[in-house]
Amino acid sequence: MQKTKTKAFANLVISVLLLAFEIWAYFQAAGFRQVKGAYVQASTFPQIMDIGMMIFTIVLLVQSLIKVFGHMKPTDPDAEAAPSMNPIKNKGVAAALFVILLCVLYTLLFDKLGYVLVSAIVSIVIMWLIGKRKPVTVILVSVLVPLVMWIVFYKLLTVNIPMGVLQPLRDLIDRI
Prior knowledge:
Layout: H1 7-30, H2 44-69, H3 91-113, H4 115-129, H5 135-156, H6 167-175
Helix pairs in contact: 1-2, 3-4, 4-5
């Protein structure tokens, strides 16, 4: 089998792409606003996580380079053929791409429709995807969980979360 069709080669390609992304993310986090006098900045945690991910990605890159350009035993699990990433053939890949699309839509609609409404819609869709089909359960969980989370964050933790079209609900809660 050609080495370019193995799991080792797929690991090599993804490790290069991941490393490029992690370096970009590290420098993006470095641009976060600095607070004078604070020991821990907003960029500290993301940069630490990035460094940790970079270490593991570099380990994967080195292992893949050794296997692809060195001698790889036929019994090595990474010598097997890499699975297809074609979303038409692989339903798991198609579902993952759909969930990524949902996340993008979630961020785009978050300010306009508000946290509670967008979270409820996305929850309903994801619950339907994972096989939850009882309408009462799906609707109750999808509506009550974001609503309770919003109340906890808004009232108890005083975090201002966008309500979008449900702004009258916020006004009602403020009056109570």
